[in-house]
Amino acid sequence: MQPTRRTLLIGAAAGTAAIGLGVLPFVIGDRTEHLTPAEAKHRGVPLTSLDSAEADILGRLGDILLPGADQAGIVNFVDHHLSVPSPESLLMVRYMDVAPPYLDFYRAGLAAMDGAAKAAHGQPFVKLPAQAAEQLVVAMGREQPRGWQGPPSQLFYFVTRSDAVDVVYGTRAGFEKLGIPYMAHIEPEKDW
């Protein structure tokens, strides 16, 4: 059956509403389920782009940048958007004059984060004590830390912080936490 203008518009509206709900398609086994990034995290949905070491770094970094980002599913959110065609990605990196594939940018930034931790403290980023990890993240937002070998640290800081903000506050509940009225162009069918 050939798609009609009507079926395409209905599909686009459903897709827009799903984005407003924060629901993304995740492949689990041989089926696709629509879940929030937090649901995907808690159900252990396999990652498609990032490896487990990269995921651990991103989860910790996200939580330092914005507490609650790891539980909100920043890793699944970023991983999902790294696996879609670049014009469909909702990651901030898309708007920062970074050439796709965006996975290269994230891999280099996460490796640089780990390299800077090892240069400064002799340990991987995920093993650093909380205060040392927080100080390193603050430093990367101000200047290139010693041992950083990747995209500009301030750009990586900005992009990953934006991802954290999107996954934590990009919902009706997130807007309520901020005390801001939620005024979606297309109202989602249900909250998450």
Summarize the structure.
By secondary structure, the protein is mainly alpha-helical. It contains 8 helices and 2 strands. Strand 1 and strand 2 form a beta hairpin.
What's the topology here?
Elements: H1 5-21, E1 24-28, E2 31-35, H2 37-42, H3 52-65, H4 74-83, H5 102-121, H6 130-142, H7 153-169, H8 172-178
Antiparallel strand pairs: 1-2
Helix pairs in contact: 3-7, 5-6, 6-7
Count every helix, treating DSSP H or I runs of 4 or more residues as helices: 8
Low-confidence stretches: 1-21
Number of strands: 2
Q: Based on Cα principal axes, name the global outline.
A: globular
- The radius of gyration computed from the alpha-carbon positions, rounded to a whole number of angstroms, is 18 Å
Biggest sheet descriptor: 2 strands, antiparallel
Distance between the termini: 34 Å
| Percent of sequence in beta strands | 5-15%
Structural class: mainly alpha
What are the secondary-structure elements, in order, as H or E?
A: HEEHHHHHHH
Helix content bin: 40-55%
Overall mean pLDDT score? 86
Instruction: Name the strands of the widest sheet in spatial order.
Output: 1-2
